[in-house]
């Protein structure tokens, strides 16, 4: 009888712990994933911060966090399975009222927009005879900007073109790009006075804006594929080149408009960023380039180039980057030049690639160096 009583008590305890864990294990569980930075550049080292809290008395002897992240983010350690993505499985002991934070180091190997949209939280009861699963949404997102390429002698025509523009430009302060605060000078306008800073320092202080040229540079990035080259490496290099030329022009004080037919990874639409200047504008352009998804086929860029040719004015400067070099695009580019615009077409191509159009001072071939090619492998 005593043995039977013990057995019944044990069965009751097993059933009771199972019921308690089944209906209470996921109460007051807080799980969060976030990247240590919202933006970075190719090659940067960052951290993914995992936070898990069990804010209740009921202990969880073990708990696993499973999530999926792009393999372009290379994590230290070996606690993942690699296929098209990383599938991480991180284990915790979440005892009563316990909060745990882990920092997972990783390297950004490619530009892109990376998200972790969901987390699977898995645990069990005391006797491990029941598997308990919960899904949690995540807002973790990271934008990795393209790596910049040095503007060297291979792009001397670009530097010369921008140099000519700079020498004849009319410099204007940009009211939308704030640079800092300094003491008032007699030539400053009343509208530039910063009254908060003046009250704080007891001296007249004025806002200082970035300077920009009255001439606007338009960078056109064409990612439309063509028969001679279908792999992604050269298009990735074209994106880097567009980021680098845009940064160079903006750093030189130019207003810059950016257009590409590359499609955004989430919206599916191409980007057309209106003219602007300064660091924040350059960040917008680099973010747009980071979000280009080469798996989404771009539409033709030629109609947009023809439309620009019809609206050319005396201050128009165009830089077109396009590995695709067909005759139709050449006609559209020639229309820009015929309309009186300063224009340069940079054709990214490997050294032995045969082009479909002749080169001249306005159409140049840019061949990546070996280290730039190997970075895409």
Mind explaining what this structure looks like?
The protein has 3 domains: 28-145, Sandwich (Immunoglobulin-like); 153-170 and 214-374, Rossmann fold, CATH 3.40.50; 181-207, no CATH class. It starts with a helix and ends with a helix. The model has no long low-confidence stretch (mean pLDDT 84). Helix content is 26%, strand content 39%. A hairpin with a 6-residue loop joins β14 (255-263) and β15 (270-276). The protein has helices at residues 2-24, 156-168, 195-201, 233-251, 279-290, 302-309, 327-338, 370-374; strands at 29-35, 39-41, 45-54, 60-70, 73-75, 80-82, 85-94, 98-108, 112-124, 131-145, 171-183, 205-213, 216-221, 255-263, 270-276, 316-321, 342-348, 363-366. The protein is elongated. With 377 residues, the protein is of the alpha/beta class. α4 (233-251) runs antiparallel to α5 (279-290) and α6 packs parallel to α7 (327-338). The strands form 4 sheets. A 6-stranded mixed sheet has the order 2-10-9-4-7-6. The chain has a 6-stranded mixed sheet with strand order 15-14-13-16-17-18, sandwiched between helices. A 4-stranded antiparallel sheet has the order 1-3-8-5, with no helix packed on it.
């Amino acid at each position: 009888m005593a043995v039977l009583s013990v057995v019944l008590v044990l069965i009751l305890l097993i059933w009771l712990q199972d019921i308690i864990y089944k209906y209470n294990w996921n109460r007051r569980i807080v799980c969060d994933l976030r990247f240590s930075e919202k933006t970075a550049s190719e090659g940067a080292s960052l951290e993914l911060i995992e936070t898990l809290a069990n804010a209740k008395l009921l202990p969880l002897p073990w708990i696993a966090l499973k999530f999926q992240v792009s393999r372009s983010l290379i994590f230290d350690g070996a606690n993942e399975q690699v296929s098209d993505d990383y599938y991480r499985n991180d284990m915790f002991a979440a005892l009563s009222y316990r909060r745990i934070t882990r920092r997972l180091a990783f390297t950004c190997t490619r530009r892109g927009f990376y998200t972790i949209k969901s987390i699977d939280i898995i645990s069990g009861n005391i006797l491990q005879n029941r598997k308990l699963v919960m899904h949690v949404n995540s807002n973790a997102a990271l934008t990795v900007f393209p790596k910049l390429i040095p503007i060297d002698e291979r792009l001397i025509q670009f530097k010369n073109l921008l140099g000519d523009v700079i020498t004849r430009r009319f410099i204007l302060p940009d009211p939308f790009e704030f640079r800092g605060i300094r003491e008032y000078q007699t030539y400053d306008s009343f509208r530039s006075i910063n009254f908060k800073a003046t009250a704080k320092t007891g001296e007249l202080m004025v806002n200082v804006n970035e300077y920009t040229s009255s001439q606007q540079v338009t960078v056109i990035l064409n990612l439309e594929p063509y028969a001679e080259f279908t792999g992604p490496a050269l298009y990735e290099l074209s994106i880097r080149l567009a980021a680098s030329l845009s940064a160079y022009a903006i750093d030189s004080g130019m207003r810059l408009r950016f257009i590409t037919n590359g499609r955004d990874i989430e919206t599916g639409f191409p980007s057309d960023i209106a003219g602007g200047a300064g660091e924040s504008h350059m960040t917008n352009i680099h973010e747009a380039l980071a979000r280009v998804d080469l798996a989404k086929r771009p539409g033709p860029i030629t109609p947009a180039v023809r439309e620009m040719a019809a609206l050319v004015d005396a201050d128009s400067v165009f830089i077109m980057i396009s590995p695709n070099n067909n005759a139709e695009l050449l006609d559209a580019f020639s229309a820009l030049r015929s309309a009186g615009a300063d224009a340069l077409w940079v054709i990214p191509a490997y050294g032995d690639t045969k082009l479909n159009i002749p080169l001249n001072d306005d159409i140049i071939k840019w061949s990546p160096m070996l280290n730039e090619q190997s970075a895409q492998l």
